[in-house]
Write a structure and sequence with these properties.
This protein has 12 helices and no strands. The protein is mainly alpha-helical. The mean pLDDT is 79.
Length: 223
């Protein structure tokens, strides 16, 4: 009927691409920032592009670069990445039924499931597969292309601190935190996490304060 036709029109690759265009511009610019910072850090340019192509996790990648830049070890960087990307467990579970049943295709489609493509795909009670892949594909391309541009441009830009790109990682999480402060419990968790991180900075290796501060989210378990 008409509802099925409307749903079929919405569930299209083109629909996902069109819906993701504004986000892709921001993702590409963010990728440039990552490329510049990664090339200037202990992570090389080629490694940065490879990481973007295989990980496709903006906040987690910034976390890894931040830890390495501040002298933290690889193990700490990996733990930070794992914690930040753990949110994809429930996200992946919520779209599992919409992905292709073939294991190989399902594996590649799952790589395109990020926060933005997940939101674009949910136009109703069930996620729309083609819309998810269209949006995710465009965002992935923008992220990798942005990283390449940042790596190549970083040679001419020099110190990313001059442009304030070194503040991209904390600015990102500040925005994420502010968007979540919708209740007293959320505000308490944010304040507790900040206090934990600040108190540990003088005494622990780089990256550890952020990891330990994440324990503040356990306040959400209180009923």
């Amino acid at each position: 009927g008409q509802n099925r036709a409307m749903r079929h029109a919405a569930d299209s690759y083109r629909g996902g691409v069109v819906a993701a265009i504004p986000l892709a511009i921001a993702v590409g610019a963010f990728g440039v920032s990552f490329g510049v910072l990664a090339a200037a850090a202990r992570l090389g340019g080629a490694e940065a592009v490879l990481m973007s192509a295989t990980t496709f996790g903006g906040s987690a990648q910034f976390a890894a670069v931040a830890v390495l830049t501040q002298g933290g070890g690889v193990a700490t960087a990996l733990v930070a990445v794992a914690l930040l990307n753990s949110r994809y467990l429930p996200i992946g579970a919520s779209v599992a039924s919409a992905l292709h049943p073939n294991p190989v295709l399902r594996f590649f489609e799952a790589q395109l499931v990020v926060d933005e493509s997940w939101a674009i795909a949910h136009q109703g009670e069930r996620p729309l597969r083609r819309r998810l892949i269209g949006a995710g594909g465009l965002l992935y391309s923008a992220w990798v292309a942005g990283t390449i541009a940042g790596v190549l441009g970083g040679r001419f830009i020099g110190d990313p601190g001059r442009l304030g790109l070194d503040a991209a990682f904390p600015a990102l999480f500040l925005v994420l935190v502010v968007a979540q402060l919708r209740s007293r419990r959320a505000a308490a968790a944010a304040l507790l996490g900040g206090a934990i991180a600040v108190s540990l900075v003088p005494f622990t290796p780089a990256g550890v304060p952020v990891l330990v501060a994440s324990a503040a989210c356990l306040l959400g378990l209180r009923r």
